[in-house]
């Protein structure tokens, strides 16, 4: 019987793409893939090590799998990913339940790693992080009609709070021909929605071609038959160009949605973060984007409690959020990370204060979201069907206004059966905080 392998992919969507590439290699070599680690002979954990909560989740997951191994349910455990890459020696020593501990530069060799493990060897290896593969075939683990398209690896921005550059290495763009080849393959196999991602998506191509090539890449993706929605996440504000906005406005397949992580608005804090902008520059940027692309959905992320953040600077951020009225927003308390420049900065803010400030921002955003949703009452929107809610006895899905996993849903009734991945027209009849309620009016 084939050996059964289960994957636990933690953290961001970029990590998920790496996990899917490992799954493809394992399946191609005859291993049977299972969705539940408890049903597997071998569990592979692709960890996240970005912030404290992610590290805790990864550790808890490894320890839980260790218990399954003690009970005899699991035979072998392989751990890799950002946590392992960040804490190489510690990971090898502190997780004796792991039969293999490998860096991100070794994931392309996952089949060889598993072979070593099955022979009874404890395998520990850390290839150079720049050896991490930039492209490759994948097993799609999301809903079959959408997936993520990772167009670059690593980051060269060196924000003072962030460990990603030391974990993943410098920014490396995937050659455009490789991206387009992958996108065509995905479309030919039923994918209709692509979510374009990288650590700094708008920087795409700068290292390979000497200039930002995201507008050209998006234009080429729009020419691929079968794709219906293309969405772009993680564009840094200083790299938003008129050329990019013109492409988003012009191309029908590009949903009018852009995520621009700014982290704060106060100029002094942004300077200490090694980030671009201040309140005036950012407000002007968002005004300009809305003028260039009418009706665009703007999403951002913020950090509260960065070292030295005064009450006045936090209030400036809160007022900024009220004025700009982002359509989507995530706010997180600062996480003090070893090895980053911010770790040793003076005037560290206590976790309780940082979390309280984040809660205030999110409470403000909920009011804004509710008001925005109220304006959609009676509107007719396209939605993609994601599933059926047996508890609510209704279907659910997303409109172009919402990205997978991070934004809201629309719940709706239909007089006729629907299929996952089907696109329907919904009339909005009610709201639920961040979500919408509606009914299908046409298919």
Automatic annotation (TrEMBL):
<dbReference type="InterPro" id="IPR007197">
    <property type="entry name" value="rSAM"/>
</dbReference>
<dbReference type="GO" id="GO:0140101">
    <property type="term" value="F:catalytic activity, acting on a tRNA"/>
</dbReference>
<dbReference type="Pfam" id="PF18693">
    <property type="entry name" value="TRAM_2"/>
</dbReference>
<dbReference type="InterPro" id="IPR020612">
    <property type="entry name" value="Methylthiotransferase_CS"/>
</dbReference>
<dbReference type="InterPro" id="IPR002792">
    <property type="entry name" value="TRAM_dom"/>
</dbReference>
<dbReference type="InterPro" id="IPR005839">
    <property type="entry name" value="Methylthiotransferase"/>
</dbReference>
<dbReference type="InterPro" id="IPR012340">
    <property type="entry name" value="NA-bd_OB-fold"/>
</dbReference>
<dbReference type="InterPro" id="IPR038135">
    <property type="entry name" value="Methylthiotransferase_N_sf"/>
</dbReference>
<dbReference type="GO" id="GO:0103039">
    <property type="term" value="F:protein methylthiotransferase activity"/>
</dbReference>
<dbReference type="GO" id="GO:0035599">
    <property type="term" value="F:aspartic acid methylthiotransferase activity"/>
</dbReference>
<comment type="function">
    <text>Catalyzes the methylthiolation of an aspartic acid residue of ribosomal protein uS12.</text>
</comment>
<feature type="binding site">
    <location>
        <position position="12"/>
    </location>
    <ligand>
        <name>[4Fe-4S] cluster 1</name>
    </ligand>
</feature>
<dbReference type="GO" id="GO:0035600">
    <property type="term" value="P:tRNA methylthiolation"/>
</dbReference>
<feature type="binding site">
    <location>
        <position position="159"/>
    </location>
    <ligand>
        <name>[4Fe-4S] cluster 2</name>
    </ligand>
</feature>
<dbReference type="GO" id="GO:0046872">
    <property type="term" value="F:metal ion binding"/>
</dbReference>
<keyword id="KW-0004">4Fe-4S</keyword>
<comment type="similarity">
    <text>Belongs to the methylthiotransferase family. RimO subfamily.</text>
</comment>
<dbReference type="Pfam" id="PF00919">
    <property type="entry name" value="UPF0004"/>
</dbReference>
<dbReference type="InterPro" id="IPR058240">
    <property type="entry name" value="rSAM_sf"/>
</dbReference>
<dbReference type="InterPro" id="IPR013848">
    <property type="entry name" value="Methylthiotransferase_N"/>
</dbReference>
<keyword id="KW-0963">Cytoplasm</keyword>
<feature type="binding site">
    <location>
        <position position="82"/>
    </location>
    <ligand>
        <name>[4Fe-4S] cluster 1</name>
    </ligand>
</feature>
<dbReference type="InterPro" id="IPR005840">
    <property type="entry name" value="Ribosomal_uS12_MeSTrfase_RimO"/>
</dbReference>
<dbReference type="InterPro" id="IPR023404">
    <property type="entry name" value="rSAM_horseshoe"/>
</dbReference>
<feature type="binding site">
    <location>
        <position position="162"/>
    </location>
    <ligand>
        <name>[4Fe-4S] cluster 2</name>
    </ligand>
</feature>
<keyword id="KW-0687">Ribonucleoprotein</keyword>
<feature type="binding site">
    <location>
        <position position="48"/>
    </location>
    <ligand>
        <name>[4Fe-4S] cluster 1</name>
    </ligand>
</feature>
<dbReference type="GO" id="GO:0051539">
    <property type="term" value="F:4 iron, 4 sulfur cluster binding"/>
</dbReference>
<feature type="domain" description="Radical SAM core">
    <location>
        <begin position="141"/>
        <end position="371"/>
    </location>
</feature>
<keyword id="KW-0411">Iron-sulfur</keyword>
<keyword id="KW-0689">Ribosomal protein</keyword>
<dbReference type="Pfam" id="PF04055">
    <property type="entry name" value="Radical_SAM"/>
</dbReference>
<keyword id="KW-0949">S-adenosyl-L-methionine</keyword>
<feature type="domain" description="TRAM">
    <location>
        <begin position="374"/>
        <end position="442"/>
    </location>
</feature>
<feature type="binding site">
    <location>
        <position position="155"/>
    </location>
    <ligand>
        <name>[4Fe-4S] cluster 2</name>
    </ligand>
</feature>
<dbReference type="InterPro" id="IPR006638">
    <property type="entry name" value="Elp3/MiaA/NifB-like_rSAM"/>
</dbReference>
<dbReference type="GO" id="GO:0005840">
    <property type="term" value="C:ribosome"/>
</dbReference>
<feature type="domain" description="MTTase N-terminal">
    <location>
        <begin position="3"/>
        <end position="119"/>
    </location>
</feature>
<keyword id="KW-0479">Metal-binding</keyword>
<keyword id="KW-0808">Transferase</keyword>
<dbReference type="GO" id="GO:0005829">
    <property type="term" value="C:cytosol"/>
</dbReference>
<keyword id="KW-0408">Iron</keyword>
């Amino acid at each position: 019987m084939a050996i059964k392998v289960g994957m636990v992919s933690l953290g961001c969507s970029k990590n998920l793409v790496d996990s899917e590439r490992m799954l493809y290699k394992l399946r191609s070599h005859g291993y049977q893939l299972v969705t539940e680690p408890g049903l597997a002979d071998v569990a592979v954990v692709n960890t996240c090590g970005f912030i404290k909560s992610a590290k805790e989740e990864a550790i808890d997951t490894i320890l839980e799998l260790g218990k399954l191994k003690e009970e005899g349910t699991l035979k072998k455990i392989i751990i890799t990913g950002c946590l392992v890459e960040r804490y190489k020696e510690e990971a090898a020593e502190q997780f004796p339940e792991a039969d293999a501990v490998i860096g991100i530069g070794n994931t392309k060799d996952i089949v060889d790693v598993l072979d070593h493990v099955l022979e009874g060897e404890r395998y520990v290896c850390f290839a150079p992080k720049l050896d991490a593969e930039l492209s490759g075939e994948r097993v799609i683990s999301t809903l079959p009609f959408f997936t993520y398209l990772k167009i670059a690896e690593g980051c060269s921005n060196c924000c003072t709070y962030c460990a990603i550059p030391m974990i993943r290495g410098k920014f490396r763009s995937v050659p455009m021909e490789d991206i387009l080849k992958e996108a065509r393959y995905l479309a030919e196999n039923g994918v209709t929605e692509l979510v374009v991602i990288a650590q700094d998506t708008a920087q795409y191509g700068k290292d390979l071609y000497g200039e930002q090539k995201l507008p050209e890449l998006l234009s080429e993706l729009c020419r691929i038959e079968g794709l219906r929605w293309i969405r772009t996440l993680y564009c840094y504000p200083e790299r938003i160009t008129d050329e990019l906005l013109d492409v988003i406005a012009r191309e029908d397949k590009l949903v009018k949605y852009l995520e621009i992580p700014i982290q704060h608005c106060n100029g002094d804090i942004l300077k200490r973060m090694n980030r671009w902008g201040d309140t005036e520059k950012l407000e002007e940027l968002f005004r300009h984007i809305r003028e260039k692309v009418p009706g665009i959905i703007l999403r951002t992320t913020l950090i509260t409690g960065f070292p030295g953040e005064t009450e006045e600077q936090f209030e400036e951020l809160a007022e900024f959020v009220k004025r700009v009225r982002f359509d989507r927003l995530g706010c997180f308390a600062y996480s003090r990370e070893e090895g980053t420049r911010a770790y040793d900065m003076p005037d560290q803010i206590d976790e309780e204060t940082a979390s309280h400030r984040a809660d205030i921002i999110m409470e403000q955003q909920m009011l804004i979201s509710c008001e925005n949703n109220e304006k959609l009452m009676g509107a007719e929107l396209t939605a993609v069907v994601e599933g059926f809610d047996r508890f609510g006895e209704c279907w659910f899905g997303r409109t172009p206004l919402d990205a997978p996993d991070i934004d809201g849903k629309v719940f709706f009734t239909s007089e006729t059966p629907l299929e996952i991945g089907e696109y329907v027209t919904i009339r909005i009849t009610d709201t639920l905080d961040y979500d919408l309620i509606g009914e299908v009016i046409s298919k």
